[in-house]
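Please, structure for the following, as tokens.
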Amino acid sequence: ETDFVSSTQERLGGFVDVPDVVGGTIKNVLADLNIHQLYEHQANALLRALGSPSSEGVMVCTGTSSGKSLVFNSVLLRLLTDNKNAKALYLFPSKALAQDQMNSLNTLLATFERHLSISPPLLRANCIDGDTPHAVREQLISQSTIILTNPDMLHAYFLPTHKRLQAFFE
């Protein structure tokens, strides 16, 4: 059910400081990655996702390379700050995008772990797609904090034997 729909005219994005609601550790992680300010839409999305006790759902619909990933990755880091056993399943429309996002996400996770003095590294994002050999899929699932996949793999591999996802999220 849709509670609210809004449309606005296209305009150039403005920059704002990273909101305090993300927490000091995540601000420091972003600074280490040379991210000192966010686009307004990123900050607004983080305020909505993290700034209220109800943690309302947020949808960010913007153009390519506009920072959507930074929003949902920051929310995930905040969740991992509170619960090191948290897990996430990311769905991307294509294998290529999932692979690209996995590399960026692992850099972010490594920086996050350094700030929390987690050693040896425990947080890992892995991509499971049609090119992933069957023999290593279960191992990747057991080693992952975040699984990146696509709708085809969700339908063909994960859902027919949903116990794979059940074990991942336990």
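The chain has a mean pLDDT of 89. Residues 15 and 39 are 5 Å apart (CA to CA).
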